[in-house]
Amino acid sequence: MSSTSPPRGSAAPHPSGRTGGRALAAARGLVSGLLTVGLATLLAALMQQVGATSGQPAPIAAVSGAFIDRTPAWLKDLAIAAFGSNDKRALLVGVVLVLAMGCLLIGVLATRRSRLALTAFALLGAVGGAAVLSRPEATAADAVPTLVGTAVGLWFLGRGYREPAASDVGNPARRLVLGAVVGGSAAYVGGWLGGDSTEATASREAIAREPARATPVAVPAGADLDVPGAAPFIVPNDDFYRIDTAIVVPRLTAEDWRLKVTGLIDREVEIDWATLQDKPMREALVTLACVSNEVGGDLVGNAVWTGWPVRELLALAGPRSGADMVLQTSADGWTCGTPLGALTDERNALLAVRMNGEPLPFEHGFPVRLVVPGLYGYVSACKWVTELKVTTFADDVGYWTPRGWSADGPIKTSSRIDVPRTGATVPAGRVAVAGVAWAQHRGVSSVEVQVDDGPWTAARLATDASIDAWRQWVLDWEARPGSHVLRVRARDRAGNLQSAVERPPAPNGAEGLHTIAVQVA
Ligand SMILES: Nc1nc2c(c(=O)[nH]1)N[C@H]1C(S)=C(S)[C@@H](COP(=O)(O)O)O[C@H]1N2
Ligand SMILES: [Mo]
């Protein structure tokens, strides 16, 4: 291999002088672009899977997204008129075509003005990177895939024109094919891993810009006690626990989403996103809890959910007598069986479309999921929901039932100490002991704390915001030096005292009192 530059000005001994040479040079530009985009797409998908980025799309999608955001309304309308719901796909094709043209030209340019060509290529990469960074919620890490992809593309392009013509005729062509295969496979795998995130991201961002039309929920001022270190009353989306079986998070567009009601009903009903938007939405405070949560664990969280009561959809379908369960199915095939009654009674069982005011994050079920107060997630909170089959517990089972978990999953009255942390050393004197307690759809009526073998002392409760939401509590403890054990228990409005008997999560939820050890200095 030689590092000699091609002769400048004269193309005589170089293949670019011939038509075949120029085609080869153009192809080299194209393959360099494919490598860049392919590797950037793959890397973006991988980084997104491990949570290293904020989940911004690869450069092509980002450029398209940035373009949409800056498109005047009349052009948008024109595009929708011309391409209908394929307008975003048309835009993507357009961006790819323009990029491909640019790369072809750069490839040809590289044979004569190599430095200019490399600069132009780097500029294209910079535009892609800038587009990624311009997306809402983007962080610096989101630009890394585009940077790496551009570096590899530049290297490939630079290598190509440095190759002396005499070396071997088969070699450059073979290298081009290899580059195209690597770039193409990376793009394919990246696109698959990213789950077609391009259109889905654009779809979600468009919804994020729409105002939420719902009767707002009132969160009373005293619902959050603001004790440092304790869980906030409303858990931000980014901090919310996530549990599902999805290796690749489904990324649907709202436009492609459909939900059908089937089974033991009077008439089949199918709704799409537009239909759902016209329904009267409401906001509700609901605390989700995972049946796998250990005593003291953090697989529980509270959020404001916006949605349409699912009972109204079921009423349109008309469940037949004899039905006692609804088998919910997700876009990725996961299922759960929910008691029909919990979806038809007066509670706020919602077809949720927003979480804390934002469109559902992809990880939490975009575009639509179920949120059912009082039931563990594994029997109720289907994300990416696509079908509700009205059926019976005798005829159907949800995903987790044959895997050792109960068919029924009402949430157990529970409580947790957030501060101090177990094992902590605290100064003697007044110490705030604080945490949360939950008894969804029954409501928490009291929380008590016990220090060592002392009496159970009532904690101060935060203002009750909803019987479906958790409740913060705090106790001012006069801490004396030494080792101490603290435990907590809650009582619900139905009169149940939290169970002190220790039971593991399987088959229907852990029991026992959260107990911590602290040192007082
Ligand atoms: N499609 C789908 N929905 C699902 C699950 C799943 O595996 N797939 N897991 C459920 C379980 S076990 C819980 S606890 C909740 C968690 O919801 P979150 O990830 O939004 O906190 O989602 C439920 N919905
Ligand atoms: Mo769960």
TrEMBL record:
Domain Oxidoreductase molybdopterin-binding positions: 248-394
Any Pfam family: Oxidored_molyb
UniProt keyword annotations, A-Z: Membrane, Transmembrane, Transmembrane helix
One GO biological process term: sulfur compound metabolic process
Domain of life of the organism encoding this protein: Bacteria
Transmembrane segments: 25-47, 90-109, 116-133, 139-157, 177-195
InterPro entries hit by this protein: Ig_E-set (IPR014756), OxRdtase_Mopterin-bd_dom (IPR000572), OxRdtase_Mopterin-bd_sf (IPR036374)
The keyword Membrane is assigned to this record: yes
GO molecular function, one term: molybdopterin cofactor binding
Record has Membrane as a keyword: yes
Protein's name according to its UniProt entry: Oxidoreductase molybdopterin binding protein
Provenance organism: Intrasporangium calvum (strain ATCC 23552 / DSM 43043 / JCM 3097 / NBRC 12989 / NCIMB 10167 / NRRL B-3866 / 7 KIP)
